[in-house]
Amino acid sequence: MNPSEWIDIKEGDGHPVEHFVIPPHYSKDLDRVLVSHGLIRDRVEKLAHLIAKDSSKPLVACCVLKGAHVFFAQLMENLKKLKNAEGKSIPLSFEFIKAKSYENDKSSGQIKLSLSEEDLKSFKGKDLLIVEDIVDTGRTMVALVERLKQYEPASVRVVSLLLKKTDRSNRYVPDYVGFAIPDLFVVGYCLDYNEYFRDLDHIAVISEHGKKAYAV
Ligand code: HPA
Ligand code: MG
């Protein structure tokens, strides 16, 4: 996917929180809605079409927990109904990988991965699709892809719903990107701040009040 095919969200973009229905317990904790749930869903459908077009063999779709699970579910819901470029449906199997590196709004610099050796060995010769919610510094994804390649999959592709445009990036770019977003801390659609805000459907910018209210 070429960067011109990403939806580029600019620094000042977004909508007042009052224009949407949000859980009342977060009323003071959000600065603005950056990507509405409807737009996310439409974009996920398009990402599924792009992935299907490029797929010729069965796929092992690896969900990076916890943040990507809603994106993963919606992406698979679309993908299972689609055909590849040769008009064939794509057999899908699922794996779930836990990768955690954030505390408050800062990367802890340490990446914890969890997947059994048995599951990892089953990747040999398979086409992997890693499904991530957000690529920020790129460190988690580079570490994850490197680690998975040791198990000799036939191919590894990465889809991330969000790619953050940040100077802290290691320049890693996923194969498929839903939205390129400004360097702001975002929550919702299962993206969290210390485990909160996963129950918000839209992707929103957290407010200073929200950062304080849910700091650890
Ligand atoms: N929001 C939530 N989780 C994240 C972010 C973010 O902006 N960046 C990296 N992990
Ligand atoms: Mg993630």
From TrEMBL:
| Superkingdom of this protein's organism | Eukaryota
Pathways involved? Purine metabolism; IMP biosynthesis via salvage pathway; IMP from hypoxanthine: step 1/1
Q: Which cofactor does it need?
A: Mg(2+)
Return the protein name.
Answer: Hypoxanthine phosphoribosyltransferase
What keyword terms does UniProt attach to this protein? Answer: Cytoplasm, Glycosyltransferase, Magnesium, Metal-binding, Nucleotide-binding, Purine salvage, Transferase
Which gene name does the record give? Answer: HPRT1
Q: Does the keyword Metal-binding apply?
A: yes
Q: Does the keyword Metal-binding apply?
A: yes
Matching InterPro entries: HGPRT (IPR050408), Hxn_phspho_trans (IPR005904), PRTase-like (IPR029057), PRTase_dom (IPR000836)
Offer an example of a GO molecular function term for this protein: hypoxanthine phosphoribosyltransferase activity
Of which family is this protein a member?
Belongs to the purine/pyrimidine phosphoribosyltransferase family.
| Chain ranges of the Phosphoribosyltransferase domain | 40-193
Query: Could you list the residue ranges that cross the membrane?
Result: none
Q: Which organism is it from?
A: Rhizophlyctis rosea
Which GO biological-process labels does this protein carry? GMP salvage; guanine salvage; hypoxanthine metabolic process; IMP salvage; purine ribonucleoside salvage
Q: Catalytic activity, per the record?
A: IMP + diphosphate = hypoxanthine + 5-phospho-alpha-D-ribose 1-diphosphate
Q: Record's Pfam families?
A: Pribosyltran (PF00156)
Query: Quick one: a GO cellular component term?
Result: cytosol
Which Enzyme Commission number(s) are on file for it? Answer: 2.4.2.8
Q: Where in the cell is it found?
A: Cytoplasm
